Amino acid sequence: MNPEQTEEPNDGRPIGRRVFLGTLGLGALGVVAAPPLQRGLEGFLGGIAGKDPTGLTGLLPNGGGFRYYSVAASVPHRGAADYRLTVDGLVDHPRSYTLAELRALPRTRLVKDVQCVTGWRVPGTPFEGVRLSHLLDAAGVRSSARALRFTCFDGTYTESLTLEQARRPDVLVALRMQDKDITHDHGGPVRLYVAPMYFYKSAKWLSGITVTDRVRPGYWEDLGYDVDAWVGGSNGRTDEPTS
Ligand SMILES: Nc1nc2c(c(=O)[nH]1)N[C@H]1C(S)=C(S)[C@@H](COP(=O)(O)O)O[C@H]1N2
Ligand SMILES: [Mo]
């Protein structure tokens, strides 16, 4: 099947020392990132937006400019035999997809910049997968639905989108990244890809999509990040450190 392709130019913003600041922020979060810290962290993150945290393990640059992030210490490997994606909640037809079933659905390919909230960016990165709107249409979203909650088989990470955001054509349940099947480290076999938002919205190791009546903030959002994480238009980015 021929994937559809969209390309957009880079927005041209420099990242410079933000990568360095991001590393500092990660260290700071590492010290405090244990379950009881949620309340205090909101202020903490509010003060350091831009040089922040977003990952507790594996801040390892690789050749492509990505850093691998996981808030879980270890994540089980899943593949064609045992991967499942469940779609449930306020839908008429809840169901669970195997990897083969997802791979058989119409694909969309997008090539855009990946932008982490800590400042690093990878220009022109291809993602390919099934439009989230396609799965929602298949599920039959009920009229009381307003939002989605995403869960991951790392057992920890969560994300959210409004229904309106989720129906955008540039939001994918991604099967491929950089024109290869998504590796385990990048959240494979299936991750969310929310092109217009900071990369923390793109939940890795996606295992559940639950349609809900309101937005329930996700993992980083509980720690102070914007739920509406539009690149350039949310609290993840400041031009200079605020402290
Ligand atoms: N399950 C899960 N998804 C996640 C994260 C995570 O820690 N766990 N980190 C997020 C953040 S902050 C970023 S920048 C990207 C990193 O994706 P990568 O590891 O493929 O570079 O994944 C996002 N999705
Ligand atoms: Mo991130």
Automatic annotation (TrEMBL):
Annotated coiled-coil segments of the chain: none
SUPFAM superfamilies: Oxidoreductase molybdopterin-binding domain
InterPro entries: OxRdtase_Mopterin-bd_dom (IPR000572), OxRdtase_Mopterin-bd_sf (IPR036374)
Superkingdom field: Bacteria
Annotated ranges, domain Oxidoreductase molybdopterin-binding: 74-220
A Pfam family matched in the record: Oxidored_molyb
Residues that span the membrane, as ranges: none
Protein name: Oxidoreductase molybdopterin-binding domain-containing protein
Protein source organism: Streptomyces lucensis JCM 4490
